[in-house]
Amino acid sequence: MPAEPLRMDLSKIAPDAYRHFLQLEGLIMQHVDRKLLHLLKLRASQINGCAYCIAMHTDEALHDGEPVERLTLLDAWEESTLYSEKERAAFAWIEEVTLIADSGASKPAFDALKAHFNDDEIAWLTLAAVQINAWNRIAISSRAQYDRAMFARAPSTEKAAEPA
């Protein structure tokens, strides 16, 4: 089945608001480990069924050296041995915030974060969850389609961040 045409382009319709979304994205990237952020964005996008964001964040994670096995097993992170306890706490939180109507952002999920993240880091993880959920809703409602060529970039020359 062919994809629907783009319904709306918020970057053109509401450029000031879109610019602020991009600015917040930049701030989050300054405060959350890049590799962990890719996984969190991908996990929320899987839950929300956002094809655009799943494709984009998979490409970004692969570009930054994330092993294929960790990406393909992300949907089964609770059963996989490929993720650290720190990552597991962050995954549980991103899932709870993504499904907040079901979970209410539970005390056990929040408390699990405290063993691995300080208050500032928890705040930025929460903003990351809010942000990717907003992007998912924008992409899904506008019927945006990911174009790998549009986001092509040279291989990263920056040193990879320490694993989570």
TrEMBL record:
Gene3D superfamilies: AhpD-like (1.20.1290.10). Coiled coil: none annotated. It holds the Pfam family CMD. It comes from the Bacteria. Residues 15-96 form the Carboxymuconolactone decarboxylase-like domain. NCBIfam families: ahpD_dom. This is Carboxymuconolactone decarboxylase family protein.
